[in-house]
Design goal:
The structure is a homotetramer. By secondary structure, chain A is mostly helical. The first copy, chain A, has one domain (4-184). In chain A, 76% of the residues lie in helices and 0% in strands. The first copy, chain A, is built from nine helices and no strands. Chain A is elongated and about 55 Å long. Chains in contact: A-B, A-C, B-D, C-D.
Amino acid sequence: METTRLEAFSDGVFAIAITLLVISLLDIHTRLAHHWPEYAAFAFSFLTIGVMWVNHHHLMNQFAQADRVFLFLNLMLLMGIVFIPFPTALIGEHIRDGGARGAAIAYGCTGIYLSIFFSALWHYGRTHVLRPDADPKVVSGITRSYVFGMPLYLTGTLIAFGTPVGSAIFYGAIAVFYAVSNTFFGKELVAV
Amino acid sequence: METTRLEAFSDGVFAIAITLLVISLLDIHTRLAHHWPEYAAFAFSFLTIGVMWVNHHHLMNQFAQADRVFLFLNLMLLMGIVFIPFPTALIGEHIRDGGARGAAIAYGCTGIYLSIFFSALWHYGRTHVLRPDADPKVVSGITRSYVFGMPLYLTGTLIAFGTPVGSAIFYGAIAVFYAVSNTFFGKELVAV
Amino acid sequence: METTRLEAFSDGVFAIAITLLVISLLDIHTRLAHHWPEYAAFAFSFLTIGVMWVNHHHLMNQFAQADRVFLFLNLMLLMGIVFIPFPTALIGEHIRDGGARGAAIAYGCTGIYLSIFFSALWHYGRTHVLRPDADPKVVSGITRSYVFGMPLYLTGTLIAFGTPVGSAIFYGAIAVFYAVSNTFFGKELVAV
Amino acid sequence: METTRLEAFSDGVFAIAITLLVISLLDIHTRLAHHWPEYAAFAFSFLTIGVMWVNHHHLMNQFAQADRVFLFLNLMLLMGIVFIPFPTALIGEHIRDGGARGAAIAYGCTGIYLSIFFSALWHYGRTHVLRPDADPKVVSGITRSYVFGMPLYLTGTLIAFGTPVGSAIFYGAIAVFYAVSNTFFGKELVAV
């Protein structure tokens, strides 16, 4: 398997980014019940990074090798993954004091950034390093699935200008939508 | 081995969560002897995550593959693992000032959450992706072992309402009980 | 493959160092737009560590085994990688208040340190544990590529004494230069 | 190779612990030159964890399998590894204000703890899960090498009661001694 080390490195970055989400919780020192927005932000972002990990693995399975452009695009993608805990923490902290507009816009822009580089990685990989035995149905299924990401996060970002709380709810709904659709409507057995 | 990458990712998350436990210690800047509750919380939680890692690996060994529901359940389990350093830090900090009730309840709820998703992962995996050559004795042994987790953490949570200190001692006893029973009464050689 | 575990460990350290870059962002609690130097420092350092990871992997592919001197040199190299988030955070924080001279010098010295140990690792490995079937063209290509690193970071360090802002721009240009030249002028397919 | 996953998990913990050393540096926000004890503590502890990683790998290579007692002993060892950044940070911070006695004693006790569990892991593994084809010379060499650790750290701890600065220098010397003796007097080629 040729992309082993790239996957291991990417998995390491995913695993650390998903775990860093709890660090902003570690700053909370007072009564627990007051902090439900932080917990909600933690849970939804965990779900989001987890789903992106599943998709990343599904995508990597279609490739035989990686060239340097592919490595670079994957690196740019990982930069967005690593960034997620930052706007997440800001939204959790400021959602109740009315100061979450910037955070909610930043979260949406991170989502847009991630959909751009997920698409770029997939389209570059599909045309340059696709496995000869890749299933055309899986390939066209992945291509179709990348149509939704950017419009969704763009909508969330636009909502954030009007109502940060509304956009936070919208981002949560995106996370649940992806988790549910990946879990129950992506039917194939996957070797992970 | 089909579940390699899932195990590697899960191991990464376990490894990071177990290491993050020391981060709350890194905030301690004064006399060392005063902080024994933080050290105790660190040690017992380290033991707890370590034992869960051993069990997770034992469980994964019984499966041939992972489907998307399995991935989702594993993700939900990992969310609980990553969360452990948070109530641990809170208990360590507040146990002496009488403000640990919320923390002790949160720790217990994390334990209940983890027993639910360990059971769910096992029962789903056993009925959907069990290895054809899995040893029926090992399978029924694992099924039996999951009977205890939830009642124990539920008891700890209920104790926490009355006496947070008592529940902290109870959680420590659970950690030692699992470490000892896993180490000395789970006799088989394991290939890890 | 004999160097598997060394690569896995090194990858872990790279993955964590690259993710730690976001931790200094997690301290930011106020208006987002004010913090663009921190974001720029994050992005350029992410790119830098990412490119070093690609180069490290390319270098490791040429070796058959590792002896203890090789392990030690690799360890010294990783110490520099892990250090990067520290001067990065300092530059991001102090670039606007005129207090970034020390940080910019520290960043340059880290770069010099890294070029010394990248060269040392390569020259030791090439003469002691080179794969018998290593491509002489690749070997001499790598040797040539290590000529530039030290003079570049030395120049940046010297600029830092005069103008910290200038050296920060220079370091950013180095990061972009390496990312572009690695991506578009290192043409071979790589198995990662 | 039967111990793959145990090694991967242990490597993850080593990698994270070694990288966490830089976190205490991330709190430093003022003039760089004042903080040389923190930098020295970082460098020596990095070396220490790095050498322990090399030894851990060397030790694991001698074993065919892991049973549950072995897993438990390895877990106890990792707890000590993860703890290292904590006394390291304390020594770095307090060495100049005369408040480092507790920190220097804590560092020494961590060293004693680590030598106990390195020895326990080795002696248990040697008598229970040794590879049938393990080289008797390597085995007796490892046994001999574990004689020194505990007396050295015990000496450092005793020195700490009299002069914390002296013990910090002594710990640094231990780190350099192990790095040098491992690098230049452990002559065999190792497949890592």
